[in-house]
Design goal:
13 helices, 336 residues, globular, 41% helix, 5-stranded mixed β-sheet, alpha/beta, two-stranded antiparallel ribbon
Length: 336
């Protein structure tokens, strides 16, 4: 009797195993943070490529899809599908992707991946990255009376593109996510992520989404998580305080302590840039001049990183490589 029962159980296991896809049998080799980081970096796949908005969107979709369908990648991060976008925002006469964003799904998790600075886009550099002299008030949510949160004009421009100008199948990203939440029987987790410029825009978009939740998701429960990496400072000290009170517990900020980009635009952190690579590499006149310009742009802006107490990854300097002032490299996934 026992032998027959064991045989029946074995047959049942073999039957179920045959029906289940092989990729679903094993857990991904990378943890959640690493999976999200890879999805974040894929949003930059159309950077530096010239073309029309339609051409760049097709290119980005093809490249992201190809990676996500690669068996070895699926072993690392599981099965993710692009369900919204990718969408490119392109400034007239530039012919480059100014901003890029897509949404990927795995079960009840949705990752909103936002691209960083396109090195070929003048608009990105000067009207989003470096446009910090002027700040605009944060207009979403119920702000405590003792706070006056503000974000840089550059962050505001990028955020408006993400919220209003970028649509897929006629829907903004929040309209799409609202329908997704409405049609789901389970609680949905929405993860906002981005690297570099995307590391400033992703928390701003996440907070705007949370502050407007009743407008696009009604009263249905959902979870919002944020995984920004190597991002500059989006706003002033009051913005940091307000953000941390709303999303601090669900945000994982990743940065390297010798990466110059996360040192912008807090004045104290900007002043540390010339000594980041000493004694291996000494700053030249060009670096000192650029830091002075950056300090002038950020002067009296009270710029403060979100989660300012987050410890950075410990970086090391290799003096045989080109000066790191000119580089803003992506950290290796296995090091996160």
């Amino acid at each position: 009797m026992v032998t027959k029962l064991l045989s029946l159980c074995l047959a049942l296991v073999l039957f179920i195993t045959t029906l289940m896809p092989s990729t679903a049998m094993a857990s991904p080799s990378l943890d959640k943070e690493q999976q999200v980081f890879l999805l974040s970096i894929l949003s930059n796949s159309a950077s530096s490529k010239p073309g029309s908005q339609e051409e760049l969107q097709e290119l980005l979709k093809a490249r992201v899809t190809k990676v996500l369908e690669t068996p070895s990648i699926q072993e690392d991060i599981g099965n993710w599908d692009v369900v919204w976008g990718p969408v490119i925002y392109e400034v007239k006469r530039e012919q480059y992707a100014t901003n890029a964003m897509y949404v990927a799904q795995n079960g009840n998790q949705y990752v909103v991946a936002i691209a960083g600075t396109n090195p070929s886009s003048f608009y990105d550099w000067f009207l989003e990255d470096f446009s910090v002299k002027k700040q605009v008030s944060w207009t979403y949510g119920d702000i405590p009376p003792n706070l006056e949160p503000k974000i840089s004009m550059g962050t505001s421009r990028g955020l408006n593109h993400l919220l209003q100008d970028m649509k897929s199948s006629g829907k903004t990203v929040l309209e799409f996510l609202g329908e997704t939440v409405e049609n789901s029987d389970d609680e949905v987790e929405i993860i906002f992520t981005g690297h570099s410029l995307g590391g400033a825009l992703s928390p701003a978009l996440a907070l705007a989404a949370l502050d407007q939740k009743s407008e696009w998701a009604g009263e249905k429960p959902l979870k919002i998580s944020v995984y920004p990496s190597a991002g500059p400072t989006p706003g002033n000290k009051d913005f940091s305080t307000y953000y941390d009170s709303q999303l601090g517990n669900s945000t994982t900020r990743i940065w390297n302590d010798i990466d110059i980009v996360p040192h912008g635009w807090n004045e104290k952190m900007l002043s540390e840039i010339p000594s980041l690579y000493k004694p291996e590499i000494k700053p030249n006149l060009a670096v000192l001049s650029l830091v002075l310009i950056a300090e002038g742009l950020a002067f009296r802006g009270k710029y403060t990183q979100i989660l300012p107490g987050t410890t950075g990854l410990e970086g090391t300097v290799n003096p045989s490589t080109p000066p790191p002032y000119a580089r803003h490299q992506v950290p290796q996934i296995q090091h996160l």
